[in-house]
Amino acid sequence: MIKASDVTKGTFVLINNQPHMCVEREYVNPGKGSAFVRLRLKNVKTGSVQRQTNKVQDNMEEVSVEFRDVQYLYGDDESFHFMDTRTYDQFQIAVEGEEEKRGFLKDGEVYQVVFWESRPLDIKLPTKMVFTVAQAEKAERGDTVSGATKTITCETGLKVKVPLFIKQGDRILINTETLEYQERVNA
Amino acid sequence: MDAGLRTRLEWTARFRAAIRDYFSRHGYAEVETPILAPFLIPEPAIEVFRTEFVPSKGRGPELYLAPSPELWMKRLIAQGSGSIFQISRSFRNGDCDSPLHNPEFDLLEYYTVGGSYLDSIAVTEGLFSHLLAAVDPKKPAGRLSPPFLRMTMAEGFERLAGIDLAACQETTALVRAGQARGLAFSGEPTWEEAFHIVFLSLVEPSLPREKPLVLMDYPALVPTTARRKPATPWAERWELYIDGVEIANCYSEQTDPEALQRLFADETQRKRLARVPHRTDDALPRIVASGPADVSGAALGVDRLAAVFLDEPGIGGVILYPFSTMMPPHPGTT
Question: What residues of chain B lie within 8 A of the CB of A20, using their CB?
Fold first, then answer.
């Protein structure tokens, strides 16, 4: 158990038997009456975020989670397959609810996975990742308006809007949270 | 000389002088009361700082750093001081990990003898007009200039949470209304706790921000020293919000000794859960009752108000040495 006042950003708690991560915490003391914390909690499984106001002395169920380095092996229709780089144990994470991660998973690449009671819960993506452009239409003549973009496809199938000068075979840096193109990293 | 620092120091000095000038011109006497107190008003949500007096012989009394100058200013009024004001260094212990809290801060308290909480709105609007003329705000003056917006707590609940607060005077009714809007209540909340959970989750985050807002007529079920509005479930209390942040709190002060004694007894009981217990000012209800019947008291966070005028996101930008930055990284580190 943990007091609501001790829950901080990054703390994992159990709400309705579902592990949630605290993504925002604000201490509020209206001065008269009781003191409270306003929390924003992200359901680790579904990704949905809920707001909650708790009395500071409320007990919450803390979840001890573990971050492990794992290698992505491959994905099929139902699951993503990984291998623990320390124990070489293989395991799967269901695609359901994590479908949007598929485009960010590269065969053989090492990621962090959050484990709770030996159950893999969530794949942590680095904030920025490099991808190779697998398919890109050539910029057509006349497409010279500043700020114009086109959509390309990366080696993982991920589709990203990029500036017109990006061509097939280029390596580009992408923000995995916003899906925004950052820069070309050919050198 | 650091020109930026100097400019900031001079601005703060002008701001404080303008506050004092306004109240002095409007018939309020400035007072200075003790920070060290042998007893305090019981306020369960406030943790205090405790210290002790060490005489050369024997053991001295336990003392507390006053979390507000209220207990002394109410004594002065009972003794016949007339309307008074004070900017007082005040101390509150416990959590302060927010941009709006610091364990020591400056509280402006102003008491209007013969006035009500409605009169104090006009006094506060006058203060803002005076400050806007006396100091250059970085925030656009139009956004701070009176008249303030006014909204009752019942209107706030109706418009922003879709809850008829007057019809939810029982805890179960209020909890059910909150649950119907997706809120979770742990354990068995009291009415006051359920009220604050709904208020802090659904109402406060959506309060209008285009002008300073007087949120008035708080539920009488929230225990304070505010007088009840006759024949209603509301108390004669308002809070001033700017950009969603609470800046000031005001009551038509309760002067009925029995009501005050009941409040003090209940609050002393709840105060037993406090991490830093303190002796209670048992004499105050009787003292207040011996003074004028109609008094309005307001408390305003000076650092928060300065932050608003300077368009700073928190009080860290106006306090010279914020607590969080002056603490060494580890105990004992030099």
Answer: none
